[in-house]
Amino acid sequence: MRKYLLVAKNTWDEYMQYRLNFVMWRVRNVLRLIIVYFLWYAIFNQRGELFGYNESQILTYILLSSIVASIVFSTKTQDIGEEINSGNLSNLLIKPISVFKYWMARDLGDKLLNIAFSIVEVFVLIIFFKPPLFFQTNPIFIFLFILGIGFSLAIYFLISILIGFFGFWTPDVWGPRFLFYIFLEFFAGSLFPLDILPKPVFSTLQLLPFNYLLYFPVKIYLGQLSILSIFEGFFVGLVWIIVLYLFTNKVWFKGLKSYGAYGR
Amino acid sequence: MKRYINIYIALLKINLASLIIYRANFINSLLSSVSWGIFSILSILLLTSKTTQVYSWSQGEIILLTAMYSIFIGIFHTIFTRNIEKIPELVDRGYFDLILTKPVDSQFLSSVRYFNYTSLSRIVVGIIALVLILIKYNISFSIANLPIYIVLSIFGLGILYNIWFIITTLSFWFTQLNNIHQLMFSIANIGRFPPEAFSQIMGYTFLFILPITLIVISPVKALTNNLNLYDILAPLLFFVGLSFIARKFWLYGLKHYTSAGG
To answer: Using CA atoms, how far apart are residues B96 and A207, in angstroms rounded to an integer?
Structure first.
């Protein structure tokens, strides 16, 4: 366990080494949040309710989904494809560590740093703009919200490493990843709550894993899902985790067989 | 000047050849570009579906702005983005020597070496959306204003290029600045929305955002006959001022290039 904590710490230290780069990443996130925030603020202007949300619910959704996005989407797994292509994966394979746990530890370091900054940024924005916010007081919903984030973390980690494994068969690893980011941008629910989409589109999205990354946990926090819907969601999410886990393992071992350690 | 035009034509040919060689890369880029363009327009259509006006802009005008932004950013990505993206890596690894040792201006070569043909698809998506929007929302526009639209678009491209280039020049002092481009994508995104949306952000922040809010808005106003003197002068002044700063800063930065690893 200690060696993985050390990996997490090393990831943190890497960021501290290239501080300006990290600051730019955070500024980018704040800017993105401000754009979405003001867009919704303008659309909501002088309206009591829109798309079934009142102003405090929608602004809470936007700000909270930004924090959840920081927790879920901050990752170092985007480097996996490059590590395979460059042959650097060999450095990991010869060490007495689990490669999967190593990547999880890298993610942990990345996430802790991004969460800390994200919370401070959103807090500053709240003080600065004083938006009307919704505070959930029911401990059951807060507990289920945290559990929902746990599901999001697992699903995102598995999908992200799976995309990295494209590197076993092609040097063009950025293409599938970029397409994945496009789908995330629109179907995870960071720009808008997914239930404002036309019903057939929304129903289809509920079957896909993207919906569990942001939309599902934030909706739990807002208390807009019944306990039955929440457990239905957890069930579908769990099925996705199991399917993705089994598939990721299969692809990993298949990929290792075709791994030629080129460049080493 | 003629020499640089010839060099640019030669670069276009080389890039076309590389496009044909790396076909998987081409298909990936094409899919990504088209999906991004379509989703951007669809999401703004969705968000404005229940409202007739956002600030002083009608729903049709807001969607028109998104389509125009798609065309604008498509042109920018085609000509500049891939080039500017490469600069920090070239400087960091010392490969920038290859640029400096060529008998061509280093800013020119660093800015236009790669021509991203696949981003042309983003322009096509924008143009299709533009035509549909003009018909559906019955937005009147004047063909006579097309020349001023083109001139203001060139100012807009110049403004974005210079801001991006100034920030990227920092890579002569700071290594591993690959997040610069993520930041710039977000900054450029501001151009998609009416400037009034950001009026709450007071003081220096707004001054920083101001030139970006002009890059697409001014040409759009030209096309829809809403142009005033400010919409022409402000982009012109920002373009000239930022071009001067970018050039001076680049030349200053070059003096700090250490060629480490080169």
So the answer is: 48
ipTM metric: 0.78
User: What residues does each domain of chain A span?
Assistant: 2-258
Which chain B residues are closer than 8 Å to A197 by Cβ?
46
Residue B204 binned pLDDT confidence (cut-offs 50, 70, 90): low
Q: Average the pLDDT over each of A100-109, B5-14, B147-156, B206-215 and give the range with the smallest value.
A: B206-215
A235 in reach of chain B (CB within 8 A)? no
Contact B208/A at CB under 8 A: no
Shortest Cα–Cα distance, B136 to chain A (Å): 20
Structure tokens at A258: 């075709």
For chain B, state the CA radius of gyration.
19
pLDDT score of B200 more than 70: no
Q: Average per-residue pLDDT in chain B?
A: 86
Domain count, chain B: 1
Residue B173's domain comprises: 2-254
Tens of pLDDT, residues B81-118? 999 989 988 888 888 888 899 999 999 999 999 998 88
Q: Measured between alpha carbons, how far is B62 from B238 in angstroms, rounded to an integer?
A: 24
For residue B259, tell me if it sits in a domain: no
**A42 → closest Cβ in B182, B186, B197:** B197
Residues of chain B contacting A51 with CB distance shorter than 8 Å: 50
The verdict on A16 touching B (C-beta cutoff 8 Å) is no
What is A162-204 written as a DSSP string? HHHGGGGT-S--HHHHHHHHHHHHHHSSSSS-GGGS-HHHHHH
- Residue B45: closest C-alpha in chain A: A197
Q: What are B117's two structure tokens? A: 């043909």
Closest CA–CA distance from residue B48 to any residue of chain A (Å): 7
Q: What is the tens place of the pLDDT at every residue in B212-228?
A: 888 888 888 888 877 88
Residue B108 lies in a domain: yes
**Could you identify the residue written with the tokens 């989409």?**
A197
Q: Closest Cα of chain A to B83: distance in Å?
A: 17
